[in-house]
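Lab notebook: predicted structure, single chain.

Context: the supervisor wants predicted structures on file for every construct in the current expression panel, including those that have not yet been purified. This is the next one on the list. No modifications to the sequence; it matches the entry in the shared construct table.
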Amino acid sequence: MHPQIVEEEPGSCPICGMDLVEKEFPAQQDDETARAGTGETEQAGNGESGADTHAGHEAMANAAGGDETVTRYTCPMHPQIVEEEPGSCPICGMDLVEKEYPASDVGAENAQGSEADRSRSAAPSFPAVSVDPLTVQHMNIVIEQAQKRALTETIRTVGTVGYDEDLLAHVHPRAKGWVERLAVASVGARVEKGDVLLEFYSPDIVSAQQDYLVALRRGMSDLVESTRARLELLDVPDSVIDTLRKQRKLQRTIPILAPQDGYVAEINLREGMYIEPGLDLYTIARRDRVWVNVDVLERRMQAVNDGQRASMRVDGIPGRTFEGRVDFVYPELDPQSRTLRVRLAFDNEDGQLRPNQFAEVTLRPAQGAPVLAVPSTAIIPAPGGARVVVRTGEGRFRPVAVETGVEAGGYTEIVAGLEPGEQVVASGQFLIDSESSVQAAFSRLSGSGDSASSSGQSSQQRSGQAGSGHQH
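Prediction complete. Output recorded below exactly as produced.
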């Protein structure tokens, strides 16, 4: 399972615990190893020959590894973090340590053309992984291309139907007095504009009537007008004033009339009660338009705007969809649920919608500009940030850190980390990502700190190199 593990003696795999199996490796390197073991004796007998041999080995090493190196700063715990200047790891906060990288590797990566590649060249995010084509087929790996598309983020939530508060009418008395008769005494009663709600006795209104009658008897037009205006300010109906003018007789009780058509949503009095201007006697509500309050998650609040289209379904009216709009977005989040309250408005001319009904709401934002996106299944969430697995060649894959944006319709916006046209693994990427993480862990433990190019060897290649290192 892990061909990079090669030992000289039988035992168990330190990764998965399976028993190690016997395998033959070419003996050519064994001979070189044996000669290297006798090198000290040969050098003792022929110092010049030993020096020449040692110099030859150094030349071979320099030819294989390159003479020049580049200084970079990396995190001991997160080797994918490599910077050109000293600093701290953005993941764990540890100080970056100095480390040498082959200049050829860094230069090759810096020579890549796309911005996404250049952003990853300073430090390989994760080692590359080579997968046999047959294994790719068995793992059901699905490849998708990162491309620009318009993401329409549909938001589904729930809410409750309520009265439109802009259509509520509150009834208050204009003078102190006592309720003599209660004409409408129950919540939910249907009323029309001008219906009598109650009759009450008020000494102030009786006094104003007397002044009006005196003005009428004396024929003083200016005084008549002023006393009539006083009655109107006390909310005495015009019909009562006209009766008073014709009959020249005081009216003991005065009616209070409904200000609009609707339903009694609230009532706060009973017969015989003492009332005064500060008391809210009735609340009259209309149902030709309703409000629906819904809660939107904090991470979705940027997708909600005034005037946005909305649709709604309620359990009590199956098969019907109501169309409305966003009427108001509240300025504050709920401190407990961390959600944003949004108010929707729906027409209800036929009165089918009723307050306190449970509603299922869908918000449909306007289609925005195309953005770079990949399938949401390709995103690998991680504590240090999301990443995707990119196919860099036939059978070669590398995890890459990305910055994600909105998610809609099964796709996620990529803000940074990818370029259009790059191929990502949309299914089966977790096994590849795990293998890359294992390689990174071994690199960190061994302290070798291989660059992206050297870390990207296939499992078979690492197996062969490890085996040659143990031959005699």
